[in-house]
Every structure is written in structure tokens, then in C-alpha cells.
């Protein structure tokens, strides 16, 4: 997968997540929705900053900077939750958008055909984890709302 394919896939996953929020009548623009417990004991705002933390972490990998936080993914998740528990809606929105912009900026610095020193950068676990987090959290929200787990997100909903 090259850089532009990855960017399209990332945009697709983010769009699908937004469609799940819409299906559940949740809005990033409503403070009350961001304070609402929507799955796993977390508020929607806490889900957003969790996704943002993964985007920041792997944006650093793409930019060739050291990862932040514990290397064990569960310890990383626990640390993120401890840091952001009870996050205010405006901070959750800002972090969600800021982390995404940072990730996009790092990815766009990679040559379109990829990084010759890291030929599998866009197919590896790190950036795959960013993509999968959108569906994982969409699933948590849907199941909490009594909905079906979404089928695999294949193909694309954006061009």
C-alpha cells in the first residue's frame, strides 16, 4: 500500500466512524453527547481522545520520532485513559482534530511511493492499528446501543 492508498483508507475509516455516530444520533458538536457514556464505561469524549492518542503515537513513528508512552499496548491504553478520564468536550474535540492533523502531516511528508527505508510502513502493525481503531470503537458504541456489530469495513465509502 502506498501513501495515497493509506490516506484514502484512513479517510474512509474516519468517515465510517462518523456515520456510526450519526446512526446513533451522536454529534461531536454537542457537549452533552461527548459527556455521555457510550460504551465500555467511557464517554464519547474519552473514546475520541483514545483514538487521538493512537494517531499521535503512530504519527511519531511515521515522522521517525520516538513513540510516546509504554510500549505494551494495554499499558498505553491504561495510561491514556488515566490522563484523559473525564475530558471536557471542548478538549476532546480539539485533541481528536489536532492529533488527526498531526498524523496527516506526518504521512504527507512520506514520498507518494513510500519510504524506501521502510517499504512496509503503510502495511505494518503500527499504522494498521490506527485504521482498526475506528472500527473497534464503532463496534463498542454500536453494541452498547443494542445494535449489531458492523460487518468488516471492506471497499470504501469515500472517493
Top keywords for this entry?
single chain, 159 residues, mainly alpha, Four Helix Bundle (Hemerythrin (Met), subunit A), two-stranded antiparallel sheet, 61% helix, globular
Provide a descriptive summary of the structure in words.
The chain is mostly helical and 159 residues long. It has one domain (3-144): Four Helix Bundle (Hemerythrin (Met), subunit A). It contains 6 helices and 2 strands; from the N terminus they run ααββαααα. Strand 1 (37-39) and strand 2 (42-43) form a beta hairpin. The chain is globular and about 45 Å long. 28% of the residues are buried.
Mean of all residue-level pLDDT scores: 94
CATH topology: Four Helix Bundle (Hemerythrin (Met), subunit A)
Question: What is the overall shape?
Answer: globular
CATH homologous superfamily classification: dinb family like domain
Strand order, sheet with most strands: 1-2
Gyration radius (Cα, Å) is 16 Å
* CATH class label: Mainly Alpha
Structural class: mainly alpha
Strand content: under 5%
Instruction: Summarize the amount of helix as a percent range.
Output: 55-70%
Largest sheet: 2 strands, antiparallel
Poorly predicted runs of 5 or more residues? none
- How many strands appear in the DSSP assignment? 2
The total number of structural domains is: 1
End-to-end CA span: 16 Å
